[in-house]
Write a structure and sequence with these properties.
Layout: H1 3-18, E1 26-39, E2 48-61, E3 64-75, E4 83-94, H2 95-99, E5 108-122, E6 132-142, E7 147-159, E8 168-169, E9 173-183, E10 189-198, E11 213-223, E12 235-245, E13 258-269
Antiparallel strand pairs: 1-2, 1-13, 2-3, 3-4, 4-5, 5-6, 6-7, 7-8, 7-9, 9-10, 10-11, 11-12, 12-13
Length: 270
């Protein structure tokens, strides 16, 4: 599938899902803040502090779910005081809901098709990423409290940084994507996050071989709104840890390609 065709499919899923907002089964929207001092960027040997504000929306509708997250990341002087915006959208269509048939078996609750896109813009004076990526592939939805989804996705990625005068398209490549949000018993705690294993995407725009990328991000949340009498799932605080190996496909020989980043986090739900 060509990049433009995949882009059109993702855009269609986005538009059709939100066009039926009045028919949502459930909806959750939040704003949040997180902070860490050990972020890394490729070709930068220093630990970087970042303040991050995010807007997140998730919902369920007749045939599946939507997820939208917008991060605005502000780096300190070790990353040129850069500001980055990163947008992620995912739509998962539930095949059982669409067909009226059950796809449950063993530990599996159902099967789906996931599509979506990533988009970013960073204003640093060096690389200045302008990433665009479309994703598409099957998803297995596990039968657990909360949710645990495992997807095998095809990625169509491109970039147009400062150093080149055209948009560069990487080789189409696969990824294993795991996302979860699991409550921990009857406590006010939950464990949420994602794990992306991304295969090499061929040569980068400078002719270098790319490497297998591993990005784990886990959050232990505490529902602080309950003891504050604000209501359940209104205000949460958490401890987050990100492990990112071969960041953006850069091999381990590149300084800054490995990040081990603890963070503090808080979010308010509308």
């Amino acid at each position: 599938m060509k990049f433009k065709a995949a882009s059109a499919l993702a855009a269609l899923a986005f538009a059709s899902s939100f066009a039926h907002a009045d028919f949502l089964d459930w909806s959750d929207t939040s704003i949040g803040y997180r902070y860490g001092t050990q972020f890394r960027e490729p070709y930068n040997r220093q630990d970087i502090a970042k303040n991050i504000v995010n807007f997140t929306h998730a919902d369920g509708f007749k045939y599946g779910t939507n997820y939208l997250n917008i991060d605005v990341l502000k780096s300190d002087s070790k990353d040129s005081d850069a500001t980055e915006t990163y947008i992620v959208y995912r739509n998962t269509l539930d095949l059982g809901k669409i067909t009226g048939s059950s796809f449950a078996f063993g530990p599996v609750r159902g099967l789906g098709i996931t599509s979506g896109f990533d988009w970013n813009h960073k204003n640093d004076p060096g690389y200045a990423s302008r990433k665009q990526m479309v994703v598409l592939g099957p998803t297995v939805m596990m039968d657990v409290p909360g949710f645990l989804n495992i997807g095998v996705l095809a990625l169509w990625e491109s970039n147009e940084p400062n150093s080149i005068d055209r948009r560069y398209y990487y080789k189409t490549h696969p990824a294993l994507s795991v996302t979860w949000a699991i409550p921990l018993g009857d406590t006010n705690l939950s464990f949420e996050g994602y794990l992306n294993w991304i295969a090499p995407k061929g040569k980068d725009e400078f002719g270098n071989n790319t490497a297998t990328e591993t990005n784990f991000d886990g959050i232990l949340w505490y529902d602080a709104g309950v003891p504050l009498n604000w209501g359940k799932n209104k205000f949460r605080v958490g401890l987050e840890y990100q492990y990112w190996r071969n960041k953006f496909g850069n091999p381990s020989s590149v300084p800054g390609s490995l990040a081990k980043t603890p963070q503090i986090r808080a979010e308010y739900h509308f």
